[in-house]
TrEMBL record:
Catalytic residues (UniProt): 232 (nucleophile)
One annotated GO biological process: methylation
Residues annotated to bind S-adenosyl-L-methionine: 110-116, 134, 179
Protein's name according to its UniProt entry: RsmF rRNA methyltransferase first C-terminal domain-containing protein
InterPro entries: Methyltr_RsmF_N (IPR031341), MeTrfase_RsmB-F_NOP2_cat (IPR049560), MeTrfase_RsmB-F_NOP2_dom (IPR001678), Nol1_Nop2_Fmu_2 (IPR027391), RCMT (IPR023267), RsmB/NOL1/NOP2-like_CS (IPR018314), RsmF_methylt_CI (IPR031340), SAM-dependent_MTases_sf (IPR029063)
CDD domains: RsmF_methylt_CTD1
Similarity section: Belongs to the class I-like SAM-binding methyltransferase superfamily. RsmB/NOP family.
């Protein structure tokens, strides 16, 4: 790989004696990994279904290395089912540092395509709220698709400028993650474009933008709230430089040491750095804590309809055996299960709040793919469970009709090894396929 000369000079200065070891990593294949989605699947079920072995990675308890020569994983039934997320192992380090706990309100400010958001969602385990924001609209749609695939119920997805969003949600969050857009030096081994785009000027411009995003993020936190800043780059300007500049402007924040075991101390000793020599592609993680009060708090979500119509309630109980836990709301044509303690969403570029259950059509309600992805088989009235290596699951994921038991009727979830991967409608021994066209295997 041809690395930019100026990049090499900077790395030599940064790494000193370790520079040769760093450079020789570019002759090795890059690390590949997956992260178990504990919302949907157990480790045993996932291991049994994968066509290659996995090895634990040190960056999170849910992260695993996969072999460098593993086949493409995006078409595997367990990937469609959201049993795992494809994630370079060291990328999981930022959420390990954030340490989200069930019940907390967490903002992921630069969230697409959703690797870290879906990791946060697993750790929240359905309790509390994940707000995932992505400024670039088409990337926000990819983020939404990943949130749906991973079966997340308690998330809000928005596409908003960080400044507008954090002003609107000032004082609302326990934890905020800024996984900032960066020059991507830690991506060089797997992304040739990042090498092409690199220049010292780009590094400088990234640092300016990163500081602006951090300054916005600071507003969104409650007193004692935690702010994690991470990048996948090595430059001091974008890492320690940005954190130091932030602390100069916000002396009500302190850098804290989480006693993290991965990687090595950064040039600010409380922060961590990961190089390829540390068994990951490259990351920087710093944990900051707000010490000042935040008197701001957003207005609550206005209560719209005291109760949704009977036909919407009936629709819910046609699909689910379980009782309704959250408030169900119809917004336009969308029928949603809203997370608790939502703030007012107006003006924040929200593209999804909570779980999409279905869409109101002229005389009926059409169930949504997301409603089945977020369910467990035992919660559904009707479900077909197929082995992950069966011809039927392959046919289903290609969008074909499949033969089912003659007794199977109506909207029916389809699971691979007990993990929901979509739905269809059964009648006369056939399941009409409702797997979304854009997600189907070719
Ligand atoms: C490193 S990526 C995030 C990766 C994501 N956290 C994950 O784990 O999948 C940074 C994101 O920041 C977004 N971004 C670009 N400019 C931005 C800005 N000015 N403010 C906030 N986000 C920005 C990019 O579109 C990109 O999706």
């Amino acid at each position: 790989m041809e690395l930019p000369q100026k990049f090499k000079e900077k790395m030599k200065e940064l790494l000193g004696e370790e520079y040769d070891a760093f450079l020789s990593c570019y002759n090795e294949p890059h690390y590949r990994g997956i992260r178990l989605n504990s919302l949907k699947c157990s480790l045993e079920t996932l291991k049994a279904a994968l066509p290659f072995p996995i090895q634990p990675a040190p960056f999170s308890p849910m992260s695993y290395y996969i072999p460098a020569d593993a086949p493409k994983i995006g078409q595997l039934p367990m990937h469609h089912a959201g049993a795992f997320y494809s994630q370079e192992p060291s990328a999981a380090s930022a959420v390990t540092a954030l340490n989200p706990q069930p019940g907390e309100f967490v903002l992921d400010l630069c969230a697409a395509p959703g690797g870290k958001s879906t990791q946060i969602a697993s750790l929240l385990n359905g309790q509390g709220l994940l707000w995932s924001n992505e400024i670039v609209k088409n990337r926000a749609n990819i983020l939404l698709s990943n949130i749906e695939r991973m079966g997340v119920k308690n998330a809000v997805i928005s596409s908003c400028h960080p400044e507008t969003l954090c002003e609107g949600l000032a004082g609302y969050f326990d934890k905020v993650l800024v996984d900032a857009p960066c020059s991507g030096e830690g991506m060089f081994r797997r992304d040739e474009q990042a090498v092409q785009d690199w220049s010292p000027e780009h590094v400088e411009a990234c640092a300016v933008r990163q500081l602006a995003i951090l300054m916005s993020a600071a507003q969104a936190l409650k007193e004692n709230g935690i702010l994690v800043y991470s990048t996948c780059t090595f430059s001091r300007e974008e890492n320690e430089g940005v954190v130091s500049a932030f602390l100069k402007q916000r002396d009500d924040f302190t850098l804290i040491d989480r006693n993290l075991k991965f990687g090595r101390p950064a040039f600010l000793p409380e922060a961590r750095r990961i190089f390829p020599m540390d068994k990951g592609e490259g990351h920087f993680v710093a944990v900051l804590q707000r010490t000042s009060k935040n008197d701001a708090y957003p207005k609550p979500y206005p209560c719209r309809s005291p109760s949704v119509k009977n036909e919407v309630q009936d629709f819910y109980s046609q699909i689910y055996k379980t009782k309704l836990q959250n408030s169900m709301e119809q917004i336009g044509k969308n029928i949603l299960l809203l997370p608790e303690a939502l703030p007012d969403l107006k003006g924040l570029g929200v593209i999804r709040a909570g779980l999409l259950l279905g869409e109101a059509k002229t005389n009926r309600i059409e169930p949504a793919h997301a409603a089945f992805m977020a369910a467990k088989p035992e919660e559904l009235r009707s479900v077909i469970n197929l082995p992950h290596d069966s011809p039927e699951i392959d046919a289903f994921l290609r969008g074909e009709e499949i033969t089912v038991d003659a007794g199977c009727k109506g909207y029916t979830g389809v699971a691979a090894d007990g993990v929901l991967t979509g739905f269809g409608k059964c009648s006369n021994g056939r399941l009409k396929n409702h797997y979304p066209k854009g997600l189907r295997n070719k």
